[in-house]
């Protein structure tokens, strides 16, 4: 196990901390002295802190202490390692570096990692199978892309990523005889939504709209396509890779993170588009 607070012995050196799980078992004949030394050296080299073997824990940074905790877990040779929010106590830059190292280490050694985290980006990057819990029960489990693009509930849609969930009612199929798309009446207007199976008329649903699903058309007016809406910028936040806008659409504020568009000023009016295939329905 890799603990959130590291749980390192402050009176022991780095190598003694890593050796501790094995030395406690050596008395029962589980490990020889030579095997303990070899496993400790290999684990420290694997997490790139071999030169710190003789250092006291108090001399280490938070990132280095986390590496010691990780080395201690893998040195023992378990098939399953539980990570209890292991990176919550290190700064953002070190956190990114360490989770990349943990991912590479898991693939190299081949242990099963059960990784607990509240950081969505961390979960999406590390998980082969992502599990969202609600009140101690599994709400949804699957690959990260599946949970992001096809959440089974409003809770998952709101928890994973940035999304607005619009309350709506199914009014019928988008086209007579076509069941793959449904018309949904929402506070923003009628939207066409792709569905994997027919949705009964009158069904109350939530339409999941991701911030990056919005497409900026222009200010010259609508083009006559489906899911075109008028918007006005209320506020913006520059996030580096993209700018996120708070946009007024039909008197309601939605989050819009368009890709590659020119910077939009507060008060700017424009036309937005939503591709039906980008939208997803969840039960109300």
What radius of gyration results from the CA coordinates? Answer: 25 Å
Strand content: 25-35%
Strand order of the largest sheet: 7-6-5-8-14
Helix content: 25-40%
Main sheet? 5 strands, antiparallel
The rounded distance between the terminal residues' Cα atoms is 39 Å
Mean pLDDT: 89
The number of helical runs is 7
The structural domain count equals 2
- CATH homologous superfamily grouping of the largest domain: Nucleic acid-binding proteins
Q: Report the count of strand segments.
A: 14
Low-confidence segments, given as residue ranges, are none
Give me the CATH fold name of the largest domain: OB fold (Dihydrolipoamide Acetyltransferase, E2P)
* Top-tier CATH class of the largest domain: Mainly Beta
What structural category characterises the helix and strand content?
Answer: alpha+beta
Instruction: Give the SSE order as H and E letters.
Output: HHHEHEHEEHHEEEEEEEEEE
From the spread of the alpha carbons, the general shape counts as elongated
Report the CATH architecture of the largest domain. Beta Barrel
């Amino acid at each position: 196990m890799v603990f959130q607070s590291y749980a390192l012995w402050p009176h022991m050196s780095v190598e003694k901390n890593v050796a501790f799980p094995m030395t406690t078992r050596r008395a029962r004949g589980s490990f020889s002295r030579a095997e303990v030394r070899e496993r400790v050296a290999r684990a420290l080299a694997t997490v790139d802190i071999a030169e710190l073997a003789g250092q006291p824990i108090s001399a280490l940074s938070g990132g280095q202490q986390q590496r010691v905790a990780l080395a201690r877990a893998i040195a023992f040779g378990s098939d399953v390692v539980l990570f209890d929010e292991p990176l919550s106590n290190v700064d953002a830059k070190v956190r990114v570096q360490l989770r990349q190292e943990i991912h590479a280490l898991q693939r190299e050694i081949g242990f099963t990692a059960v990784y607990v985290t509240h950081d969505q980006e961390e979960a999406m990057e590390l998980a082969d199978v992502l599990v969202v819990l609600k009140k101690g029960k599994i709400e949804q489990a699957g690959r990260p892309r599946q949970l992001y693009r096809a959440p089974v509930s409003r809770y998952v849609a709101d928890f994973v990523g940035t999304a607005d969930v619009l309350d709506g009612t199914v009014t019928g199929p988008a086209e007579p005889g076509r069941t793959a798309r449904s018309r949904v009446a929402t506070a923003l207007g009628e939207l066409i939504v792709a569905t994997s199976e027919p949705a009964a008329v009158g069904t109350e649903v939530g339409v999941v709209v991701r911030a990056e699903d919005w497409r900026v058309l222009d200010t010259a007016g609508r083009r006559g396509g489906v899911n075109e809406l008028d918007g006005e910028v209320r506020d913006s936040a520059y996030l580096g890779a993209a700018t996120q806008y708070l946009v007024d659409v039909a008197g309601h504020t939605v989050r819009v993170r368009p890709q590659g568009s020119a910077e939009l000023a507060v008060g700017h009016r424009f036309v937005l588009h939503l591709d039906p295939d980008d939208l997803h329905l969840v039960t109300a």
